[in-house]
Amino acid sequence: MKETSFLKDNEEILERLRDVSVFDALSDKELRDFLTLSKLRSYEKGELIIREGEYDCWLYFLLSGSVDVIVGDQAMRTLSSKGDIFGEMGIIDGSPRCASIVADEDATQCLGMDASILDRIAKENAINALYVIYRIFAEVFSGRLREAMQENAQLKSENENLKKELELSTT
Question: Which partner for 22 in 12, 83, 129, 171 could form a disulfide, CB atoms 3.0-4.6 Å apart?
Answer without folding.
Answer: 83
